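[Solved] Which block belongs to which protein?

Original post:
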Amino acid sequence: MSEQQPVAAIFDIGKTNKKFFLIDESYHIVYEVAQQFDEVTDEDGDACENLEALTNWVNDTFEKALQLPAYQVKAINFSTYGASFVYIDKAGKPLTPLYNYLKKYPAQLAEKLYAAHGGVDLFSKDTASPALGSLNSGLQLYRLQQQQPAIFAQTAYALHLPQFISYLLTRKAVSDITSIGCHTALWNFKQHQYHNWVHTSGMLEKLAPVAAADEVQEIEYKGRPIHVGTGLHDSSAALIPYLRNFSDAFILISTGTWCISLNPFNEEPLTADELQADCLCYMSYQNKPVKASRLFAGQEHENITKKLAAHFGVTHDFYKNVAFDYTMGKWAMEEYTNGKRFTTAGLNGFDTYERAYHFFLYDLVQQQKKSTSLILGAKKTTRVFVDGGFSRNPIFMNFLAWAFPAMEVYAASVSQATAIGAALAIHEHWSRKQIAGDMVEMKLFHI
C-alpha cells in the first residue's frame, strides 16, 4: 500500500455554497465537494440557515474524508460567513435557529443600547462599525437577552458560526478574534478589549474564552490524532495568503457582489466621516485592525449589464467579449471629466454596446477609487491587489490603473483563497514544507 499523502481538511461555508477541501502540503487542492441547502424559517417566518442539515453535512463529509485511502488528514480548520451566532446549552445543543444577519432589527432596542453608551456615533466609532442592525452580531445576542430571557438564561455559550463548527469536533467552546472583530459591536478597537457594554450587560459570561487564530486542539477521532483549528471569519481568512506572501504595505480589493477594499497596514482609528461613508474595521488573524470600505459594485455591474443587453439586443454576458480599447477609454475619461455620468436613461446616446460599457465601467471605477481612497491612510502604499470577478475584467483593471497612477495595480489570484487562508492559519501544525512565495498569481496593469 502506498504512503498516504498528508493533507489539511477545510470547511469553507458561505451563505449559498458550502464547500469542503483537502489541501496538500504545497497548497494544492486535491479533493473537494460542494453542497447547497434550502433555507428554513425561524419562529418569525424569516428565512435562515438550516443548521441541522449543515451540522449533519459537516459530520458526514468529514467522516467520508477520513476514509479516503490516499490521504491522511493531519488537521482541520473552518472559515464561514460572519455575523451569525449559534446559542448552545451546557450539553452543546443549539437552542434557537441560526438567525439570518439580514433579519430586521427592532429600532427601539438598538436605540436603547446606543443611548446607554454615549449615542450611536460614539458607539460605532469605538466598535469600528457602522450601525448595521442584525449584521452587528453583538446586537443579536442583546436581542436574545431582551426578548427571549429564558433562552438567554439557558445559553452556556454564544458561538460565532466558525467556532460552532469547530466545537462539533472538539466539544470545546472558544471565541476567535477575526469573528469578534467583524462588525459585531462587541469589540472596543481603541482599548483592544471587549466594549464596556459587554461587561455591564451580562454578555461576557455567554462568550467563550478567546483563542489565537493559529491555535489548535489535538483530538483523537476514531483513533486518529487530528489538530482542529478554531475557525475564522471568511473575509479575514481570504486575506491570509496575501499577508503570508507580502510584507510591504498593500491594499486588497476583494471583488464580488460587494467590492471590499482592505488595508491591513492602516492603523489609524476610524473617523466619524469614514463611518458615515460605510467604512469599518475587520480584525486580521494576527490580531490587528484591518480598515475596510465597501462598494456595491458587483451588484451594480449585474444590474447594468442586464439593461445593456436588453437595449442592444445581445446576451447578458456579452461584456465578456469586449476587449479594452485605449481610444474609447480616453474618450470615456474626457466625457467624465466634462461632467457626464453614466445613467441607463441615456443609453440612446451610445451608438454601440462597447462604447456604453466602457463609459459605464469608467464611471464605476471612479466610484471604486473614491471607496478605496477612504482607507489608504498616511502610510505609503505602493501596490493594489484585485481578486475576484473584476480581476478578470481587463477594462475594469486598466481603468483602475489609470485611477491610481502612482501605484502598481495587479490582478491577483489565489484559487479558493478563503480555504487556503484557513489552512495557512494553522500551517505549522500540519505541513512539513515551507510556504511557497509564489502562491499568489499576479498580472500588472500599466497606465
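(Second protein starts here: sequence line, then its C-alpha cells.)
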Amino acid sequence: MTAFRILLLLMLCLAEPTGAAPAVRWTQCDAARPSLCRRVMPEQLALDMPRTTLSAIVTVPPDSIHEPLAVDIDAMASVEIRWNGVPIGRNGVPGPDRASEVPGRFSFSAPVPPSLVRAGENRVTITLSAHHLWLPVAQPIHRLAIGPPLDADAYTLRHYLPTLATLALPLGVLLLLCALLIAGRIGKPALLPMAILAVVVVQGLLEVSKVVLPYTYPWQLARLVVLAGLTAIAGLLLVLLACRLVLPLRARAATVLTAAAMLTACLFVSGPDRQALAMFGIALIAAMSLAMPAAMRGERKAIALAAMAVALAAWAWQVGPNFLDVGYYLTAAGAAVVLGLATVLRPVQVIERRLSIAMTEPAVTLRDGACRHILAPSQIVFLKAADDYCTVHMADGRQIMVTMTLKAILSLLPAGFLRIHRSHAINMAHLSGMRPGPSGRVVHLADGTTLPVGRTYAAALSRGIAETAGTPSSLPDPSLSAGSVLRR
C-alpha cells in the first residue's frame, strides 16, 4: 500500500459516516432442526460446528429506505452474507469441512444493494465456518454490525492510529542508542533496555502490519500468537532488568519462575490477546515482588520500579486486552523518552571522568570467576554483599558482580571506604547525608541511594564523617546529617 493510500485512509477515518445503526438481535438455528432457534451474542459463539448460520430481522423505517446500509464483520472465519435471501457478499468460501472452505480475511464489509432494502422488516442471514483455525479461539467473531457503510481498511487504520503515533518514539530512541553504542559512548549495561525497546518496536510493526497486508484469518491467528510471544519476551526482559536494578544474584531464578508462571497461565486463559495480557501482568507482578524488599529499605530505584509495576498492572487490569493495543505502546514511548534523555545527558560526563581518573589514581582489579574487572576506586559508590558474591555499584550506573567477599574487596581498596552494615560498604566521597530511619540510621549517597546503617558500625561511620569533615575526633551528634557535619 502506497503512502498516498495510507494518507487517503487517514482522511477516511475522519470522514467516516456516523449514522445510527439499526438495533439487531441475532438468532442461531440448528441445521438439522431449523425450527429449533435461540437468541445469541455473536461475540460469544465458538464456531465449533461445521457451519454456523445466524439470522436477524432488520427494521428499516420508510423515511430511511434510501440511506446506504452495510454488514460489517471482523471474524476468524469465512463468511457469506444474504439480505432477504439474496447473496450480497462473501469473504472466502464457507464450507462444511476444511477441504471445501476457502479462508477469508479477518475484516470484511458487504454493502447492501439499495434495491434489496425494503421498508419494514428485512432478514439478514450470515453463514460462517472456521475450519482453518489451528488453535482454539475464545472469540472468533470480534465484531458484527449493520449500519452505514464503513471502509474496512479505514476502520482498521483508525483502530491502530495510537500505535502508529507512539511507535516513532521507541524506534527513534532505539536508533539513537544503537548509534551511541557503535560510537562507544555507552556500554553493555544499555543492551538490556535496548533489547526491550527492540521487542516493542517489532511488536508495533507487526501490530500495524494489518493495515497494509491483507492476510487471511489463519494468518491473523498466527499474527496474534507471535504478538503474544513477543509480549512474553518483553515481560521476561523486564524481569531481568528489575533483577539487575535490585537483585542481580537472583536473575536466573526469577526469570525461570516467571516463565513457568506464564506457561501455566496460558493453560488456563484462552485466546492470544488474553494470554498476552496475562503474561504481561505476571511479569509486572514479578517485577513488583522483586522490588518490594529493596523499596521497604528506602531505595529510590526500587520504589520507582514497584510504583511503576503497580500502576501498569492496575491500568492493564482496568482496560483489558485492548491495553496491548494502546496503553502498552504509550508506556513504551514514555519509557523510551526517559531512557533516551538519561543516556544522552550522561555519556560525555562518564567518559571525561574515566579519562581524568586514569591519569590521577591507581586502579583496583576485582575478579569475577575467570574474568577481571579493572576499576577506578573513586568511581565506586558502594558495595553490596550477598553470600560469597558482591555487587559493585559504579557512579556511571553500572552494577558489576564479582566473585569476592566484601571483606576481600575492602582489603584491596584505598582509604575512604567504610563498612556501614554487614551487607554494605560505601565510598565516603559519595556520602551526601545521614539521618534517623524507622529502624535505625540510614545514609544517603550522591546517586540517590539510601542504605541502612548497622548498629555495630554506627560509631565508626560517625568517626569517618568527622574525619572527612576535618572536625575533632569526638563523635558528632547522631541527629546531624553528614552534610551538616561537612559544612562545619
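Accepted answer:
You had them paired correctly. Confirming on the second one: Residues 1-21, 347-359, 471-488 have pLDDT under 50 and may be disordered.
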